Structures are given as structure tokens and as C-alpha cells.
Amino acid sequence: MRHPDRAEHPDLAIGLDVGGTRVKAVGIDRMGSVLSSAVVTVPRSVDGLVAHVVATVNGLCLRFGPATSLGIALPGLVDPQFGARSLPGKLPGLEGFALVDAIQRAIEIPVTCLNDGAAATYGEWRYGAGMGLSDIVVLTLGTGVGSGVVVNGRLFTNANLGSGGGLGHLTIDAEGPRCPCGNRGCAETRISATAMINALWDHVSRGVPSVLAETVLTGPGEARFENLVAAATTGDLLATELLERFIRDLGTTIVSAVHAFNPTAVVIVGGMTVEAAAFLPQVQAYVSAHAWRYPRDRDIPVLVGALADLAGAIGVAAYAREKDPPPQTMTRPGRLDPAEIEAPSAQRGGMTGDLIAATAGAARDVLRSCSTSHGWRVRA
């Protein structure tokens, strides 16, 4: 059945960004323009999610013609041809579920998954605040903290499912709260919207005065990051203290990312950036004061994303269509054959040559001694 308002778009690409509370869906054309978008509450089960994805694809294809590809952005450690391999504490039932296979059985277009932070990064790099830059870091600030990195004009991915950079799990407080990932003091436990509201709840429940006390005590879900910012602007001491800590911790996270990847710019996206005017100037000042770079006066701007809440959905749609090669899933650890560690050339005489030869020989011996316990096959 043909949709009465159907307009053919031969390069239609579809993207869905599955977040902690919402699923955002888009259909984009070849230039990255959004043809249609929708936001719904995350379905309660994986079966419900699959049904929603299939219904969304069918609806968009009915309206705009056949799609070239489908991309799905997910939190956690994501296998492009499977789904979420590791997703602690989020979206019950999705971890270890073969999402790609389940969807692929119902539709005929290629399906690719990508970490949600990497998807937002790809969107901002291709069509948003990072356009024209070969090296950027992106942080997504919402119920959690995601990230992604573009290095030398290519989205960072690897065979260990490392497509987002994991910057939300940088340790910024070794004595900090336990993170669902198993670490302590991850950035996500300090600078996510969830972390901020939890901190507000913790203080108010212990009797610390705040204009937000009544709202918070009604239930943690009643308060939002924008409420905290509004309270801080009116001089509420608790809200001001928490906002100042947020600024410091976000600055610390960005500085660590700069030291790791040395980007041209850093882009922040997500729902919390709606309040960027209240914290971005101070964060920029922190980064400028603490980041190690050359020349020392080189600016590393911290920018607000241009694609708003749709960065992940747009990014994963573009990624799936453009077929930036996904990493191959590593099913077993890589193996190094000791026999491949060659002794130095006989032409390398003297102390240096002897030292290199001894080191190479020792390396071969160590690897051979480990081969029995690890099951490596070693050439004689």
C-alpha cells in the first residue's frame, strides 16, 4: 500500500538511538537532512523493542520509499553485527541479546549497531559542530555519559568493541561511587544527569536545606538537572555547590580526554547541554588552564553539538549507510608466536647487538613457558 504523501528518496537511511529512557528515530536523505523523526519511551522488553524497530522501518519505507540501511545506536560495549555484548545496569534483557539477527529476520535491509556515543560523534562530525575537523572528541551528557573519538578523519573503532572511547568511565575520583561497570569514581558517576540528581537526593535526604527539597523528596524522578541549575542561579547554596563540582569534574574529564587524544575540538551533546550557558564558560576556562598541548596558547574549544537530541540517531543512520567498516569481533585473544621474535642481524655487533639478542631470546623463552597454560602452539 502506497502512502498518500509518499516522496521517493533513493538514499533513505534509517537510524534509531536507544537510550536509557527514550528511543529516537530518524530517516535521513543523502545530505544528512532529517526527513522524519520521532521519540518514544523505551519499550519494556526486547521483544517490544524489536517490534518498535520493525514498525518504524516499515513506516518510513512506506512514506519515503525503500531504505538503503538501518543503524541502531546502543549503550555499552557493542558488537556491530550482534548488539550489546556488555551493558551493566542498563536496559534489562538487551545485554547478550542477538538484536541484529532478530531484526534482520523481519526486514530485508542491512542492519548495523554502534555504540551510542560513537554514533553521536559520527553525526556531529559529518553534519554538526565537528564538520571539517579531522580530530574531535565528543561527550554525550544525559542519564549516562557516552563518548566517541575521530582521529585523523576516521571514527575510532577496534576489534575489542572499543568504538566509543569509554571516556564516561575514566576514573576521576578513585574513592568515588561504585559504577555499574565495576569501577569506582567513573566520570559517569559524577557528571551524568543521574549522578547529579542522586547527589541532590543524598544531601536533601540528610537534611541539607535547599529550595529543591520538596521536589526531591517527592521522588528522585521529580527533579531534573535544569531544576538544579535554576536553583543555583537563585543562590541556593546546595545547588551552587553541586553545580560547581559538576563544572570541575566535567573539566577534569575533558582535560583527560585531551591528553589521551589531542583533539582539535571537544563537542558536548545530550539533554544536559540545554543548560550549557550556566556551565560552559567555566568549563572552557578550566580546560584552557589545565590541558597540556602545544603551542601552549592553542585553543581547544569546547563546543555544544549542533544536532541536539538527534545526534546519535542521525550519526548511526549515516554510519550504516556509508559503511565505515565496522571492527571485526575478536572471539579469542590475539596470539603472538615466539618464533616470530627474530634474533637481531649478525651485522649488529657489540654491546647493543648482544643486548638485543639477549632480550629477544628472553622474550621467546617467556612466551614458550606461557604456551602450555594458554594453549598456544609454538613453532620449534
Low-pLDDT sequence parts: 325-353, 369-380
The main sheet comes to: 5 strands, mixed
Q: Could you give the order of strands across the largest sheet?
A: 3-2-1-4-7
Mean pLDDT: 85
Short account of what is shown:
This protein is of the alpha/beta class. It contains 11 helices and 12 strands.
Keywords for this entry:
5-stranded mixed β-sheet, Nucleotidyltransferase, domain 5, alpha/beta, globular, disordered C terminus, 380 residues, single chain
Tell me what you see in this structure.
With 380 residues, the protein is of the alpha/beta class. It has three domains: 1-128 and 308-330, ATPase, nucleotide binding domain (Nucleotidyltransferase, domain 5); 133-305, 2-Layer Sandwich (Nucleotidyltransferase, domain 5), CATH 3.30.420; 338-374. 37% of the residues lie in helices and 16% in strands. The chain is built from eleven helices and twelve strands. The strands form three sheets. Strands 3-2-1-4-7 form a five-stranded mixed β-sheet. Strand 5 and strand 6 form a beta hairpin.
Give the arrangement of secondary structure elements.
Layout: E1 13-18, E2 22-28, E3 34-41, H1 46-64, E4 69-74, E5 77-79, E6 83-86, H2 99-104, E7 111-115, H3 116-127, E8 136-141, E9 145-151, E10 154-155, H4 188-191, H5 193-205, H6 213-218, H7 225-233, H8 237-261, E11 265-269, H9 280-290, E12 302-304, H10 311-322, H11 350-374
Parallel strand pairs: 1-4, 4-7, 8-11, 11-12
Antiparallel strand pairs: 1-2, 2-3, 5-6, 8-9, 9-10
